[in-house]
């Protein structure tokens, strides 16, 4: 979501993020993603939350076959790409406009030609232009490491509410770094039932499943 270029003077622990590509094996496919930290910053590298989300999706705990999915703040597009490879009928992979060309190139590189028609790369700034997306039109809403900028929390929540219905599943993979992260979960629980469904201890990544609460009907 945040397209923030970073200086080249980084700690060695982050060196993998500065590599020009990252490779994975998911859904019986070798997935090779271009990374571009210098130009697009945090939006253009693969973070652990995305990897853990893909591992969770491979476990089959959430049915993807035949489903309509959307990824928010996709960055390199890893999660959306893997969702498509695992059988989602339609996947919309979104981020802000400056990242779209980069994102589309990763999709083209990793989605088989006969499946490309089922994957769409689309501009989405949270809370803006939501009328371009069908209300409650997605079975699965995916987000990996998108809970980190407090100023975006209201618009992110608004976007999740717009995209999901009471039968949709929202999956969020994230670290709980600061008090603001738990504050977002509290905000989320005002509109969704929320359960932690997976924890990767090695990477300190939590996955939360959220389902929209029924609309209030005043008597």
Automatic annotation (TrEMBL):
Q: What does the UniProt keyword field contain?
A: Cytoplasm, Methyltransferase, S-adenosyl-L-methionine, Transferase
One GO biological process this protein is involved in is: methylation
Which segments does the entry list as coiled coil?
Answer: none
Query: One GO CC annotation, please?
Result: protein-containing complex
The lineage's top-level taxon is Eukaryota
**Signal peptide residue numbers:** none
Provide the catalytic activity annotation: L-lysyl-[protein] + 3 S-adenosyl-L-methionine = N(6),N(6),N(6)-trimethyl-L-lysyl-[protein] + 3 S-adenosyl-L-homocysteine + 3 H(+)
Pfam families annotated for this entry? Methyltransf_16 (PF10294)
Cross-referenced InterPro entries, in alphabetical order? Methyltransf_16, SAM-dependent_MTases_sf
A single Gene Ontology molecular function, please? methyltransferase activity
Where does this protein reside within or beyond the cell?
Cytoplasm
Family recorded in the similarity comment: Belongs to the methyltransferase superfamily. METTL21 family.
User: What is the designated name of this protein?
Assistant: Protein N-lysine methyltransferase METTL21A
